[in-house]
Amino acid sequence: MASSTVLIMSPAFLCGNNIRRFPSHAPNARTRLRPITAKIAEKTALQYRKLGDSGLQISEITIGTMTFGQQNTEKEAHEILSYSFDHGINILDTSEVYPVPVSKETQGRTDLYIGSWLKSQPRDKWLSERSSYIRDNAKVLRVDAANIRESVEKSLQRLSTDYIDLLQIHWPDRYVPLFGEFFYDYSKWRPSVPFLEHLRAFQELINEGKVRYIGVSNETSYGVMEFVHAAKIEGLPKIVSIQNNYSLLVRCRFEADLVEVCHPKNCNIGLLAYSPLAGGALSGKYLDLDSEAARKGRLNLFPGYMARYKDSHSREATVKYIEMARKHGLTPVQLALGFTRDRPFMTSSIIGATSLDQLKEDIDAFLTTERPLPPEVIADIETIFKRYKDPAIL
């Protein structure tokens, strides 16, 4: 089991004289096929949305942190966090396994970088979300009560905080198809920790004041329904969030039936979408594999990492989306992030950046791209989707 942490800051902390600015780092690592004149609308304010049944109001952008401690130094991590929160973002996603790729030498370093930054911030002004993964005495990591407690207590220590606002299971204890595997493999079923054990362990941590809300990640409709049903029958905490992969290249898994399950009129589970840029692939930087941007990108730095965006039809589909973006005067980033931003079931999109330039481009895409995207843009997206569906399936 791995868990992920979200840190959420209240809008009050982000206003007035608290804004701090840092110098730009390296040039933007994203490239385009040729210069593009983006279609710029009047700059809008960042929006905030309620997360499921919780009392949390979170920004429509979440900052991902899995490069902190691997591709980013502690100083760079602090600059990225400060810029994000100074510009209205109030939710941060981390995990005890980070940074990635996972290694014994670096595991937990992301939490430590975040914890050192948080020491300069008022604790009552931000919220936290996390998941669990590494144990001292476990040969096989499971989402049982002992592992959940150990995960939370270690994370609290690394993050230098007393409680976590949103605790999510990083991926299910049972077998589910993930990371490019689309169909359920009947032969891979295995015994798993009961849903009730998860919830009772979470209840204990909530009662102790160490966790406020709970959620899931990389979950299926079956899993969400089981969690919701068990909570209702046994009077245990209800999950309020689901953190799943969603982008122009990965839509079917969520849109097929999770949309119905998570609907506010049904189970009311808020979606936190990770990889809205498909690991950077939708920026177009990997189309020229010999470019400096591609060579510095994590899909090339770490062989086999996110292979679903390289060893599939994703490249072909990405070319089509970029050509279409150009047709409408949009950058690839504006198209990809504008699409996830405007989905009616979206609570927040998780973006990661290894430089301030990347971060600024992503934030600007949310604030300056026409809201919502024009009907003709959506129509062209659907035309490409009908041809490629989910091209990241391996």
Overall description:
By secondary structure, this protein is an alpha/beta fold. The protein has a single domain (3-388), classed as TIM Barrel. It is built from 12 helices and 12 strands. It has helices spanning 74-86, 109-118, 145-159, 195-207, 221-234, 252-262, 292-296, 298-301, 314-327, 332-342, 356-368, 375-388; strands spanning 3-9, 48-50, 57-59, 61-64, 91-95, 126-127, 129-131, 164-169, 211-217, 239-245, 270-274, 346-351. Helix 1 (74-86) links the parallel strand 4 (61-64) and strand 5. The longest helix has 15 residues, at 145-159. The chain starts with a strand and ends in a 6-residue tail after the last helix. Keywords: NADP, Oxidoreductase. GO terms for molecular function: oxidoreductase activity. This is NADP-dependent oxidoreductase domain-containing protein. Residues 60-384 form the NADP-dependent oxidoreductase domain.
Provide the residue-averaged pLDDT: 87
Number of helices: 12
CATH architecture: Alpha-Beta Barrel
CATH topology: TIM Barrel
What fraction strand? 5-15%
Helical content, roughly? 25-40%
Write the layout of secondary structure elements.
Layout: E1 3-9, E2 48-50, E3 57-59, E4 61-64, H1 74-86, E5 91-95, H2 109-118, E6 126-127, E7 129-131, H3 145-159, E8 164-169, H4 195-207, E9 211-217, H5 221-234, E10 239-245, H6 252-262, E11 270-274, H7 292-296, H8 298-301, H9 314-327, H10 332-342, E12 346-351, H11 356-368, H12 375-388
Parallel strand pairs: 4-5, 4-12, 7-8, 8-9, 9-10, 10-11, 11-12
Antiparallel strand pairs: 1-5, 1-6, 1-8, 2-3
